Amino acid sequence: MGKTPEIMNNTGTTPPAQDTPATNKASGWISLPLLISLLTLLLLGWHWLDSRQRDMQMELNLGRRLAEFEVHNKESGILARQTQEAVREAQAKLSLLEQKMAESQSHQMAVEELYQEMSRNRDEWVLAEIEQMLLIASQQLQLAGNVRAAMIALQTAESRLQRLDRPQFFTLRKAINKDIEKLQSLPQIDLAGLNLRLDNLSADVDQLPLLPGRITVTAKPAPRQPLPENFWLRLREEAWQDFKELVRIQNLEKPELPLLPPEQAYFLRENLKLRLLSARLALLQRNEASYKADIKAAEDWLRHYFDTSDKTVRNALSHLKQLGQSRLSIDLPDITASLDAARTFKLAREKSGK
Asked: How much is the pTM?
């Protein structure tokens, strides 16, 4: 029912069905959805495969990253342990350094105390040295009148304080500089030059000629007559000859000075040398009165007993005149201010205990 009867051919087989237009149309409509389904399946399969590959790739990447993370984690653990060990070592070293620093600080404090003690001792020694120099300067000026020695002592003390360069010594240095200025303002007296000129004059005394005819020429004694054989006559002759040798008769009514025998000329030169030597001693003692008296006496002796027409004698007289005009005594200043300043500074330092 509802089926198309099959038509048998002469051979008794069923002839092949012939496509009708309706059948062709039905098969065309059936193939299009199938094709779409197949395409959809293909797309779904391709998408599944792509997703699967992506998932596998993601799993691989994730596994690799997990492995790398594990490696990094292990390395981080190793680094952490190393860091902890380094921190412990650093802490141990830090504690050791702190201990050494504490010891160093204690040593530094001890060294600073020792340095301060040495500095105090050195300052005290320097103050004692400066005080001694200032005392020498005051003594040389007041007792001996030696301005040069006093100047040298003050300048030595000033240079000593200048090398230290301590601000607490400023007042002392100021007082010393004032005393140095006082000495520098004094007139200069060349004691060494005057002494040398007197020494040269004393050495030239033996070459200075005396006045002509001032030295007596001792004649050879005449041979004695043979004494008589009589005892009384011989005694009278001997007594008379001895009396003539003891007594010398000279005419002193003339103003000329008596003649000098050779031995007295020798003593004259030696006395002149002694006068010049006495003048040198008075010069060193700054005794101006005694110095000028000796110079005047030496000058008078040269005029009375020596030949003033000779050039050497005239030069000696000129030198003596110049030496006699030299001034020895000067008003010496008071340089005890620096010494008082040193003693005051030392006393204040001892009271403060610095």
From this structure: 0.43
